[in-house]
Amino acid sequence: MRKGQEKGRFVISLDFEINWGVRDQQTLDQYGQNLLGVRQAIPAMLALFAEFELRVTWATVGLLFFRTKAEMLAHLPEVRPQYADSNLSPYLVMDQVGESEAVDQYHFGHSLIEQIRRTPGQEMATHTFCHYYCLERGQTAESFRADLTAAVQVAQEQGMTLQSLVFPRNQYNAEYIAICEELGITSYRGNESSWIYKERSEEQQSLYKRGARLLDAYVDLSGPNCHTLDDIARQFPYNIPASRFLRPWSGRLQALEGLRLRRILSGMEYAARHGQVFHLWWHPHNFGVNIPQNMAVLRRIAEHYRYLHATYGMESQAMGDLATELQSRSSAVTAS
After folding, report:
1. DSSP bridge partners of 13
2. 125 — phi, psi (to 5°)?
3. CATH topology of domain 9-335
4. Which residues are within 8 A (CB) of 331 and not within 5 positions of it... i.e. 6 or more apart?
5. d(CA 216, CA 148)
6. Largest CA distance in the chain
7. Roughly what angle, to the nearest 10 degrees, separates helices 25-51 and 291-312?
8. If DSSP codes are grouped into helix, strand and coil, which group holds residue 253?
């Protein structure tokens, strides 16, 4: 790192939703093992984060905060999204929710949230209250405001202040940023700048773009996707764009694992060398199967971060850390 150059930043954010991101029974049958395995994966990840002093943002669906179904039902917002595709609404399947986390590990996450809170350096953030889809037909600004208000309130009742947001399915909606600011959100995870990752509703997604994103995980199609602090500071709440999705280990694609890991490590090194931000993200349930293999990959990433920290001064920051730093810089400039 050259004298006077910014230090690189390594940001990690996790989309913590368990079953609230899954609607249909076929998908649940397919991912059921992942969803239950998250209860072994999260403690393993937390232990590794603590070992390597990695600060991580856990963007958590508000519906996971409760201990019982009665608590959950008492906190549901009155205004709810009326999606054209009713399968997207979790409110239509409330009869499937068990009475507590003890009997229903798909829909409750309070005990996992408590583990996260006890681990140093972990930021609790929001993934909206009901895994809200901001670009789907039938939802409105009014229902989004009600949803995010519910998420903020339940966190406050449990002693947490939510400052960071991850849009479910990365459906970033610029029209809702002012609402986020009103409710105390200081940063959100935006999408990579490449056309491959442009935000779209599910109806607008194409197999071509999905295929391009998959290929980009192994071959450099979109570049390192790193960003300078000056770029991030241009707007508020701060857009801290994603750099790379950490895809789960795949036995079917095992021969390409070296390419997938190299794609991530090279992006981290680019950020460290150039004083930029590298933002890695995934879902905890991605690690719910093949846990040893997935944790081995994560350890390699953590070890590379430790090397970059020692060599270039790279820092680990949660999204909220970065936003707080940028706010402090802005206040200092204004005061001067």
Report:
1. 57, 281
2. -125, -175
3. TIM Barrel (3.20.20)
4. none
5. 32
6. 60
7. 40
8. coil
Domain ranges of the chain: 9-335
Give 221's Cβ-side CA count (13 Å radius).
17
CA distances from 256 to 52, 196, 205, 262 (A): 26, 21, 25, 10
**Residue 86: is its pLDDT beyond 70?**
yes
Quick one: CA torsion of 132, 133, 137, 139, rounded to 10 degrees?
Answer: 30
What are φ and ψ of residue 188, in 5° steps?
A: -145, 160
Q: Name the residue among 2, 37, 3, 11 with its Cα closest to residue 279.
A: 11
Task: Tell me the torsion sign for CA atoms 51, 318, 326, 275.
Answer: positive
Tokens of 273: 């060398």
**Does position 193 have pLDDT exceeding 80, yes or no?**
no
| Separation in Å, CA 233 to CA 60, 83, 92, 282 | 25, 34, 40, 24
Cα-to-chain-centroid distance, residue 42: 14
Rounded Cα gap, residues 146 and 94, in angstroms:
18
Out of 103-117, 134-148, 188-202, 203-217, pick the least confident: 203-217
User: Who's near 186: CB < 8 A, 6+ residues apart?
Assistant: 163, 164, 236, 237, 238, 320, 323, 324, 327
Task: Report the chain's C-alpha Rg in angstroms.
Answer: 19
| Residue in this structure with the two tokens 């809702």, named with its chain if needed | 176
Residue 203 has pLDDT above 60, yes or no: no
Please count the helices (runs of H) and the strands (runs of E) in the chain: 10, 9
Task: Pull the structure tokens for residue 81.
Answer: 């999204």
